[in-house]
Amino acid sequence: MKTKTVAITGGAGFLGSHLCDHFIANDYRVFCLDNLVTGNLNNIRHLLKDKNFEFIRHDVSKTIKLKSKIDYVLHFASPASPVDYLKLPIPTLKVGSLGTHNSLGLSKLNKAKFLLASTSEIYGDPLVHPQKETYWGNVNTIGPRGVYDEAKRFAEAITMAYHRSHKINTKIARIFNTYGPRMRIDDGRVVPNFIYQVLHDKPLTIYGSGKQTRSFCYYSDLIDGIIRLLNSDLNSPVNIGNPDEFTIIEFAELIKEVSGKNVKFVYEPLPEDDPKRRRPDIGIAKKVLGWAPKTKLKEGLAITLSWFQKDISR
Length: 314
Ligand code: UDP
Hints:
Blueprint: E1 5-9, H1 14-25, E2 29-34, E3 53-57, E4 72-75, H2 82-87, H3 89-110, E5 113-119, H4 146-166, E6 170-175, E7 178-179, H5 190-199, E8 204-207, E9 213-214, E10 217-218, H6 219-230, E11 238-240, E12 246-247, H7 248-259, E13 265-268, H8 283-289, H9 297-313
Parallel strand pairs: 1-2, 1-4, 2-3, 4-5, 5-6, 6-11, 7-10, 8-13
Antiparallel strand pairs: 9-12
Uridine-5'-diphosphate binds next to helix 5 and strand 8.
């Protein structure tokens, strides 16, 4: 069988690098594109010598040119934590819009299958709970998170337009909060923040009342869902996430328990437009992809905590 080739934008990032691992392990050729603004070479260093792996330092908001025939394009490039996209508002808007356009252009040229990493943020601060794919969302277009939310909403719209107009086989994964090894300790999200804090015996910073909810999916479950979606016949968006919902206070208690550290909580202001409740309805993923997350939060957190511990002491 001829070796298949996949281009992964954001391939040096948290999820992108795990996707690179998946495809290399399955004998694909991988082009990993990343401008390393939020990605990190350490995530893919172990792949650099592999004959099937090529890293290209490139900002996908600019035209993408590759020498080879491509079979799949997975568009994962974007700052993805609220702290990062607040620091990088214009690059975030550009990679979600121009970057998606360029990635779709690469798909069109190669007649390649395309998968967009979309997000639960397209639901904004949702008024419907849990969130089903049919919900249109509640986004503040001009708020600080709008740069990410609207870029991803545009990305979904242009993906469907390429599917309808150019008959590209496109997939849209709406990714809910995901965690695991290779997150950046300073990306500002709740998982690395709390892990950094317990590892340094600092109080856990709870934003707002801590009664807002999230549900956390372990990265390997997420990657499994993405691959199933890529191999499915679906072209409409699919929620991929863990439906076990926790308040941030419950989550902080769990981190204390897993780490065995008796740290205190400090309360800090809630960031603007922080969603109050978030939980995916994964009915479609279950029924059509036969997918549901398997990793319990406690288990995944224990592995993630020890990974960060090693990474910090390196
Ligand atoms: N959060 C918190 N303390 C922190 C970081 C985040 O209480 O140190 C809260 C944040 O306000 C939000 C939730 O945790 O309600 C998840 O935030 P994160 O930045 O991980 O991602 P989001 O789901 O908001 O995109």
